[in-house]
Design brief:
154 residues; Rossmann fold; 2 domains; 4 strands
Length: 154
């Protein structure tokens, strides 16, 4: 019983430290008039095999984050502007955009996409904050531990 109480306490403490770190990260980027500086947010989620490349879902979250002052990079929007070349080209372009982002937000079921898992893994390794696009809460599961049918990655 004592061990489980300690484990729960350590997990909670780790979560609090993570949230505090993200808040500090965001606070550092505020201007004097308390408006957010134009942070770049990369939207990551499944596209392949989903009708319209999941564009309606990407559009929904892009609009929400833009309304909150973020400069959003949404892969389906970019594909419409430039024309989708092929998977490998898009993945290379997207990884460059992830590396140039201040924060990465994942759409629901992101772990079902090999590309999204790679994007999240790169962001996590480079300590770019990764959050749930719906809630804004930090994603605490490591992308390297997720597989397509893995519900623990919710």
């Amino acid at each position: 019983m004592l061990f489980s109480d300690i484990a729960v306490g350590l997990f909670f403490l780790g979560f609090v430290v993570l949230v505090y770190g993200i808040c500090a990260f965001m606070q550092d980027r505020k201007m004097d008039d308390d408006k957010m500086i134009n942070l770049k947010l990369y939207l990551s989620g499944p596209m392949t095999g989903i009708p319209e490349d999941n564009k309606p879902e990407f559009d929904k979250y892009a609009a929400i984050w833009r309304a909150n002052g973020y400069r959003v990079f949404s892969p389906p929007e970019w594909d419409l502007k430039t024309g989708k070349i092929d998977y490998k080209y898009s993945l290379k372009r997207d990884i460059k955009e992830v590396l140039d982002s201040d924060i990465l937000a994942v759409l629901p079921y992101w772990w079902k996409s090999k590309g999204a898992r790679l994007e999240v893994h790169n962001a996590q390794e480079l300590e770019i904050p990764v959050v749930n696009a719906e809630t804004g809460l930090p994603v605490t599961v490591r992308a390297i531990d997720c597989y397509e049918d893995d519900e623990k990655c919710l």
